[in-house]
Amino acid sequence: MENRFEGNGKSRRISTLTGSWLDNSVAVQQSRRMGTYKGDDDEEQDEVLTKRGSWTGRFDFLLSLLGYSVGLGNVWRFPYLCYNNGGGAFLIPFTIMLVIAGLPLMFMELSIAQYAGLGPAVLFRRFSPLFQGVGIGMVLIAGTVMLYYNVILAWTLFYAVASFEEPLPWKGCDHPWTSNNCYSYEEENACVSNNGTYYLRKCHANANLIANLTKVPKKPPAEDFFKNYLLRLSPGIETTGNISVTLALSLLGAWLIVFLCLCRGVKSSGKVVYFTALFPYVVLVMLFVRGITLPGSYNGIMYYLEPDWDKLKSAQIWGDAAVQIFFALSPAWGGLLTLASYNKFSNNCYRDAIIVAISNILTSFFAGFVIFSILGFLAHELDTEVESVIDQGAGLAFVVFPEMVTKLQMPMFWSVLFFFMLLTLGLDSQFTLMETVVTGILDTFPKLRQWKIRVVFGVAVAGYVGGLVFITNSGMYWFQLVDKYAANWSVLLIAIIECVLIAWIYGSERFIGNIEEMIGKRSLCFHYFWTIAWKFVTPITLLFILCFNWIQYKPVSYGKYVYPDWADIVGWIIGLLPMMVIVVTALYKIVADTSLQSTVQIIRKLLKPTAEWKPSRSPLYRFEYDDNGIEI
């Protein structure tokens, strides 16, 4: 063992591990003999880390991360974007954006949270006190999204239960909730076979009576079922109406499932994800096998895959790819930080980030085959073009697929399977969103850990009450409003702030050194790649996404309904609230500093990590840095 001292006035390092890598126990023993090791004392004194818990199974974290990153958007948004942006050509910008934006942010957040063993609320308070509001803003975003995301699960739960009815309740137009424009191809065929003419839900024997009437839009029964029976949609957001009892019970069921799975924190959710993260892949394979055997599936897949290379020249395809990968992996929401904070210190988060990123893009691509084979069949059955039945989001899940499944053999089976798959896809994301909020509360107030079940129950009750606005007659309008604004510009700005704080202020080399303390020595290429990515490429890409979103901005709308001005103002307030918290917190930190330093000196001090910033466990290798963040 060699002790080296530098007498040039800089900080000094006692190099106890020079020339070789030692395991944790040897490093600790050497440090203790020299009297420099303080890890155990620090952990005992750190109330936040005490009894915090960790993942108990080998694959708990990886599957939770996979479930969080692979969600509903992979099934109901990516295929539509791929079709709309040049088919197979869309995979090129999507993969590039994954490498330069999605993966760097994911790896950065997983690494810093695993190193500190803290959720976002406390992590940034220690890492950069001036930007403590970043962590609070993340918890706010997760809490807001959590409210309306569980409403999707409530819809899905309702459809899964309703799928056990025979025939399926949304089949045909002979129901009190259908509109005059409801159009059933089965009823039309039956009418034509009797030499009649099908018009406005009725079969007319005398075609001459309706020959000169105006053509009307055709609505599938599944659309009327969703809007008129389930949502009972009011004319606009101004008309609140009543709370739907059916949806209130469905929402209660969704929250009950989430509470039961999270009541013991990551110990319970880590076991549930073995099913919820893997079951959707089983269903996707089953739907794919069934889909490609249906007539018209080939045409649907060709619509999906046929590349249009000219679209690579447009900014739209690159912007859509960047936005999709950013919101697919969900950095800056606090979820990645929360999940990684429960990792063992030596977990290889680099490997996990790469596995999940690749799984995300492969799942999205495969889901496109499934969806478009089914859309091709639906177009074949309706004797129309594929583009006329394409939809995305809720329209695909709750209108197009229910309409299609009525035309399959064993419709109950496929309907139950599909909606149960959607439920498990959404549950993983909801688990992480709620765990982010719960972790933020428990990290901030560690003494509440002894009442963790009560805290989880309180968050679930608050989430249920907060979600009631989304199940009123105007609930869908509120849903669209919050969905557009809640996790948009603030998330992008927070991600940019993270890059600046970690790569520039803290120092990318210093941060990579922290990573090496956890996963071992890395090559020079590793250092160069991630330094360039975190300092330059990723922040510039995020600025591009931000500018693209601003340029593409349009006030929120739902179908032909135009929202009033006050609704847009409410949306902007919801969207910018996390940034306002960041600014107000920073100003408070500066004003509350009682030292006699100048404002510039205070800001510099508040930008640096506090004395509490340290690894959550004894590192494999220790580095020391001077005041400028340069390794000594």
UniProtKB/TrEMBL annotation:
It is found in: Membrane. PROSITE patterns: NA_NEUROTRAN_SYMP_1, NA_NEUROTRAN_SYMP_3. Disulfide bonds join 173-182. Its main location: membrane. It is a multi-pass membrane protein. Na(+) binds at residues 67, 70, 74, 360, 425, 428-429. Keywords: Disulfide bond, Membrane, Metal-binding, Sodium, Symport, Transmembrane, Transmembrane helix, Transport. The keyword Transmembrane helix applies. It comes from the Eukaryota. GO terms for molecular function: glycine:sodium symporter activity; metal ion binding. One of its GO terms (cellular component) is plasma membrane. The keyword Disulfide bond applies. NCBIfam families: Na_transp (NF037979). Belongs to the sodium:neurotransmitter symporter (SNF) (TC 2.A.22) family. This is Transporter.
